[in-house]
Amino acid sequence: MNNNKNPGIGFGKITQFSIDEKIDQEKIEKLFLNKINEMENYLQGSNDNFAQELLDYLKKNKKIKFLLNKHEEIFIINNQNDFIKIFKYLIFRYKYMRCSKDKINLGYPPYLLIEPVSACNLRCPFCFQTDTSFTRKPYMGVMKFDLFKEIIDEANDLGICAITLASRGEPTMHKQFAEMLEYISSKKNIFEIKINTNGNYLTEKICHAILKNKVTQIIISADHYIKKDYERLRLNSDFKKTVENVDRLFNIRKKYYSKSIIEIRISGIDNEKKLDREKFKEFWIKRSDHVTASFPEERWNTYKNKKTPKANDPCVYLWERMYIWFDGKVNPCDLDYKSYLSYGNFKNNGIKEIWNNKTISKLRNDHLEEKRKNIVPCDRCGLEFNK
To answer: Could you tell me the pTM of the whole model?
Structure first.
């Protein structure tokens, strides 16, 4: 058993910690070891060096080349009846890890985060939505559905395997959110579909749309298990309504979608660093598959943070992901929520062209040359990454 505290492949030192979750790495490894021939047949004629490296290591060492996290374990277990799918998934996660750790540019972003809506109905004290200079034009808006479809079409053509609907705002506020999910799920090369949400808009319609459209993970932000503390931390929220909404999703899955591959995760911010994590998990695990908690990042006004010159290691986001805002603007991260570092717009150029342009290439090089401390807001975001 592997009691891994890192539920994501990224190498950030600030991360979501699984609460008392054990990962049966050996069970997953046995699953793959029993299918060596299938993997060899699948890779026959392939020039995918990452995939071959992963397979060769498995054959030689009788184990997977990296430690799995809880999300990966759940995905593999839920999809084990489709072995080629989980092998492709393992390859994707390995590539993602290598891009992050070794600063490798695949020529396209392995992971895409799309913002349906930049607005949010809540005002959490640890979030940039409390920055009143942000919650107005030109930053507020809703993505047009035609633009969304164009982004998804290219992502599918490029083989971008993972899409998250979320970023600066609450994605389920989009009036065509259900249609967005349906469109993504129709694409053959996108097999990891994620949603980040505060859970306030999990209506029956949206719950059914999530469950029938192959969403693999929904992360519901919920920072406490006590009503008064939850509503203090999630300003403008209704604790009872949120719990009812999460229960609705959980129960609809149980009643109508027993074979659903989705992971329902509750994700908390331990804002005051005194959350009773055992009680937090005990409350939320009854209505979810996985419960995590982390300390807050200083993102309520990134631009006024103090500089952190010691955090001068290259940011892994520059190699592992791309954010696309509601208006097509492309950004390297959402801590830079006002887009100081925007490096293109999908309305003008495609994903691959933007990913390899001079602006983002220079930013990557500057980070590698330890110039992060000279770049706003990279010099004050506070994120450190494992070497």
So the answer is: 0.90
